[in-house]
């Protein structure tokens, strides 16, 4: 996914779909006006005759990591009580909610992915206040549309969550009000806590890198699925690619990490084209920016720009090769100790000179690259990189001095994704370039001595892309 702002590669948006702390559990089931009446005899009958079933839940691999992360976070605020809510459901319409996706920091520090839970860290102790499966002594389990087991599915019990995550679990209805004198920092409102939480997530450990690698590998399969189905793509257009990729994301991951950008023809010049309603037409390019989110919520973020006919035209190839050269320069700049922005600057250097060679710049490339000018950016628009992890635009609330103005360190993962975009109505470029958008994006791990491309299994050079398409179609 490309950068959220055109102006500043520094700025990131928070992409959590979770809301703020969930409401404490109420004994009133959430029902709808069209639900049938529940006479006392029916309710009484429903509450009897159920077996109790506790599952043996293995310890989750993140449990020990999360415990260590909590210690580090607590050490940053030794006197305070830290509250990290998972968030609750978001309404889509009336009584219909979106599928739940927990707050990133909540899951990072607890491992929990169930809704409405609240992680509390205090005096070195952590408690997860969770909303466990329905008891049988209220109507909830057969009447509540949101949490009722017979409506929404079985939630884990408190014991199961505790066994899995190695943390003390209490019912969220017992969440204290915290109205004592102690300072309470709630992640949803406390900027310092949010900042530190994001800064702690910048460097990924070996388990996280494995999760990101897996997300990239499944993402590559999703791209392959789309190309294999090219006849249908030509018939149904962008929608078919979106659906094909989504199927792979659901089959082997948790979800897509962000709305897929499936941009045929001039739609590719719209940075975040997520309508995906257009046709895929012969002779044009199609820009695909898609990423699978794995079961532990780490997401890939990969872009390829493909020739619809399987072969680039000479004009398309020249532009593609220029973007690839810029991307390679950006990737080559990635190593520990260099500024985060080094990849951006290396890529923009290549693109500005390329635009100059095409005779498009009103000034020299050197003048255009001056931070006070940046006129080349009419055709590059966005920053080259952002951090990647559990959020596609990861760690966006870190202190700007650390990210993006700081340096790269071993274990960080960032995208390198330069692009060239010639709008359909741009009168300053030759007509043959108008409506062409090209972006190439890979997910780059900073290693001790350089970097590793986690998404390298997808072809990048123009000839490799053609060979790959020819093999799969
Ligand atoms: Mn991206």
Q: What features would you describe in this structure?
A:
With 473 residues, this protein is of the alpha+beta class. The chain folds into 2 domains: 11-200, 3-Layer(aba) Sandwich (Creatine Amidinohydrolase, Chain A, domain 1); 206-472, Creatinase/methionine aminopeptidase superfamily (Creatine Amidinohydrolase). The chain contains 14 helices and 17 strands. The protein has helices at residues 40-46, 62-76, 104-110, 140-143, 149-152, 158-165, 191-200, 206-228, 230-236, 238-252, 314-332, 342-357, 365-369, 462-472; strands at residues 81-85, 91-93, 96-97, 118-122, 125-130, 168-171, 184-186, 255-256, 261-264, 285-290, 292-293, 302-307, 413-416, 419-422, 436-439, 442-447, 450-453. The strands form 6 sheets. A 5-stranded mixed β-sheet has the order 6-5-4-1-7. A 3-stranded antiparallel β-sheet has the order 9-10-12. α8 (206-228) crosses α10 (238-252) and α11 packs antiparallel against α12. The longest helix is centred in the middle third of the chain and has 23 residues, at 206-228. Manganese (II) ion binds next to loops. Residues 61-194 form the Aminopeptidase P N-terminal domain. It holds the Pfam family Peptidase_M24. It catalyses: Release of any N-terminal amino acid, including proline, that is linked to proline, even from a dipeptide or tripeptide.
